[in-house]
Design a protein that fits this description.
By secondary structure, the protein is α+β, with helices and mostly antiparallel strands. The chain has helices spanning 18-26, 70-81, and strands spanning 6-14, 34-39, 47-49, 52-54, 57-66, 90-96. It has a 4-stranded antiparallel β-sheet, with helices on one face. Strands 3-4 form a two-stranded antiparallel ribbon.
Length: 112
């Protein structure tokens, strides 16, 4: 099986908790991330107001990390914004086959 050097972590949290998720990830080596606004579709979360179904707002934090720190970051996210917290987040990771445009902290950036 192929070894992957990078993983992408997706963390889906209630609106307003993406910064808490990113802070937790940075404590374990993440250098940054991207936040997407989203809307939940689970029927249990839907509220009916004036005959209009309102789905709760979500935020998706996407964090590209070195594979060696993936587990530490996933555990940090669980503690900071997991299902048993107000953020009610879930997180998962996927392997990344190739990456361009980023460098490791010890790798100097070169101009071409």
């Amino acid at each position: 099986m192929k070894q992957f050097n990078h993983e992408v972590i997706f963390c889906i949290v209630n609106s307003g908790f993406s910064e808490s998720a990113m802070d937790a990830a940075k404590e374990y080596g993440a250098r940054g991330g991207t936040v997407f606004r989203a809307r939940g579709t689970a029927n249990l979360e839907a509220e009916k107001l004036l005959n209009i179904i309102i789905q709760p707002e979500k935020e998706v934090v996407m964090i590209l990390v070195d594979s060696t720190i993936r587990d530490d970051i996933l555990h940090a996210l669980y503690r900071a914004v997991g299902l048993n917290t107000p953020g009610q987040g879930i997180a998962f990771s996927l392997p990344v086959d190739n990456v361009i445009g980023i460098s490791s902290p010890e790798e100097p950036k070169t101009e071409e």
